[in-house]
Amino acid sequence: MNVSIKEKAQIKNSKPTQFFENGHSTEFIIEVRDLAKSFNGLKAVDRINLKIRKGELFSLLGPNGAGKSTTIRMLTTVLKPTNGDARIKDFSLIEEKNKIKPLIGVCPQENVVFGALTAEDNVEFVGRMHGMDPVEMKKRSKNLLEKMNIAGRKKPVKSFSGGMKRRLNLVMSLIHQPQILFLDEPTAGLDPQARRLVWDFIKDLKNTGVTIILTTHDMLEADALSDHIAIMDLGKIIAFGTLEELKSSSSNGNILEFSFSSRDELIQAKSKLERINNVKNISEMDNNKLIISFTGGVMTFKREILREIESFKALHFREDSLEDIFLKLTGRGLRD
Amino acid sequence: MYSIDVKAWYIAKKNIKEKLKNLGSMFWTVAFPIMMLLVYKLAFSEGTEEGMINGLTIFEVEFPGIVVYTIGMSSVTSAVMFAMSKIDGTLERIDSMPVSRGNVFLGAVISESIFMNLQLILVFGFGYGVLGAHFELAMLPLGYLIAMIFGIGCIGLGLIIASFLGSPEGANGIAMLTHMSLMFVSGSFFPLDNAGVFFTPQYWVKQVYLQLTVVGNSFTDLLYSGNIILPSSTASVFPIWSGILIILAFTSTFIFLGVKIFQKKTTL
Questions:
Q1: Are residues A60 and A177 in the same domain?
Q2: Residues of A in contact with B97 (CB under 8 A)
Q3: Between A and B, how many residue pairs show a Cβ–Cβ distance under 8 A?
């Protein structure tokens, strides 16, 4: 992986250090300062800083094990940080976590549902824990379950499909009308249709003024929903900004995906590609695939590489994506 | 910290609904004690002269053992329930909501106590009403109360077991092993003439219960007589109140330790 160390350092150092100005602003509903969590000496989250605006949809993007869920678990008061603090609305995560709990809704990564109960029972249990008025709770429960296409089912939740349980999980996190909603991989395991339903629902929800913090390793999801994106890897935030900002700050230029029939073919092609001037970066992926970023015109580059490389399976030109940005920053794919 | 409030009742209601719909759990709660009673009745009801204790058949003397067994099962069911809540995310979900852990524990005690009441009604009804075990009606409410106090202590034992185990299957196995071992070591199934029995709460529950509901007929007399039956004889060593104190101490200690250890092990 040929990533410029200088470029990487620029991105790492530029955005996160700009997050904090002095004093507390009402513009930001969440401000995270030097938040860290270690498990048996292993740093799961390493002194991250973040500011999240009221009413925005903020995505934490990163591969499995990047520290996204640990960050969410700290911000939702479940895990105690080993360092740092966060201010959620007007309250300190460390000192006033009981004041934070009524403000937040949490949709955890795993489906936390009570299998023997009906969907209504599950939702109403959460409502009761938030001290909701029973009449309002039932009305809101019905409305939310209808929106998620799981209303009126009297069977226990254990008979539900994975996707239905996922949607129920989302409803459970919303019953008490939280001001801040944490969604940990909300569409993991959903079929495309259900995923689209959840995306539309999240977009509608955002329009009501709820601040949404979403973790995902799905670039399409982050791309489709987010106002701001923070890319996490190995417990650190390595880039932050809007999608456009991220692309402009770390753009590789154009991208060529090159597939080969065998590893030998790939190695031969790679050595030839490394000699071409326009090539900025070459990343080796699974399935005998190379991702090449290059500068200059697509047609000129195509002519040049076809002159050099004769044996390959397929090639495909495209624009830079979030995954490419991640690849450039970390040297790894999001699903590695 | 949030205070303990009505949310404990909603947690209990959720637990009850879940347990009622779990056929396996209901079998161990309801059907198994009835089966045990039938087995004991068939095996020990026809007492010969030498097989009788204080004029009672072995079935009648062992009946309190079945009560102890039945109520003691709450250590198994609560261990499984708490271990499950650790791994299926329930505890984390509750921790992210404005609810105290006190409500979670109280909710569990309420739901388990309701099932213990159901068990006691069934076992008493079946044992006394259908199978004809001897009992003193006036002493029955006190015996009932002691069984409930013991049961709450067993929930504490279940909490301790669940604190150390990472899966409901493991908690079930260890809790069952603990419960059955204590049942045998305490002489609750079959009388044991061994000093070890005195170190098990089950022994005291069985003996006090035996005194109150089967042998005794006046609580005041029992308090002062010091007439507690030894495992396999009629000799008296300890007065009944010492047994009651031991049961109370067992319950308080196990609930205290259970809550403390579970809190420590699950607060991340």
A1: yes
A2: 101, 126, 129-130
A3: 62
Nearest to A77 among B21, B89, B96 (CB): B96
* C-alpha span between A73 and A37 (Å, rounded): 10
Partners of B98 on chain A (C-beta within 8 Å) are 98, 101-102, 129-131
Domain assignment present for residue A334? The answer is no
Task: Give me the residue from A78, A98, A106 closest to B98, CB to CB.
Answer: A98
Q: Write down the ipTM of this complex.
A: 0.81
Does the pLDDT at position B234 exceed 90? no
Q: Given a cut of 50, is residue A4 above it in pLDDT?
A: no
CATH of the domain at A18: 3.40.50.300
Model pLDDT, residue A213: 93
Q: What is the mean pLDDT of residues B135-139?
A: 73
Number of Cα atoms under 13 Å in the Cβ half of residue B61: 23
pLDDT for A297 equals 74
| Domain co-membership, A233 together with A256 | no
CA gap B21, A118 in Å, rounded: 11
For chain A, what is the mean pLDDT? 82
Domain that holds residue A30: 8-248
Q: Give residue A183's identity as a one-letter amino acid code.
A: L
Chain A residues whose beta carbon lies within 8 Å of the beta carbon of residue B99: 129
Q: What is the mean pLDDT of residues B11-39?
A: 87
Q: What is the CATH number for A258? A: 3.30.70.920
B10·A121 Cβ contact <8 A: no
DSSP A62: -
- As for how many domains chain A has, the answer is 2
Q: Is A127 on the interface with B (CB under 8 A)?
A: no
DSSP string covering A109-143: SS----TTS-HHHHHHHHHHHTT--HHHHHHHHHH
Longest dimension (CA), chain A: 73
Which one-letter amino acid corresponds to residue A90? Answer: D
Q: Which among A227, A248, A269 is the end of a domain?
A: A248
Domain stops at, among A224, A248, A272 = A248
Same domain, A260 and A202: no
Q: Name the token pair of A31.
A: 């401000």
Q: Which range has the worst mean pLDDT, A320-334, B97-111, B179-193, B237-251?
A: A320-334
Q: How far is B19 from chain A (nearest CA, A)?
A: 8
Q: Kindly report each contact of residues A310-313 with a partner whose C-beta sits within 8 Å and lies 24 or more positions away, as own/partner.
A: A311/A260, A311/A261, A311/A265, A311/A268, A311/A269, A312/A258, A312/A259, A312/A260, A312/A261, A312/A265, A312/A269, A313/A259, A313/A260, A313/A261, A313/A265, A313/A288
Residue A76 near residue B94, CB atoms below 8 Å: no
The mean pLDDT of B146-166, rounded to a whole number, is 92
Q: What percent of chain B has pLDDT over 70?
A: 83
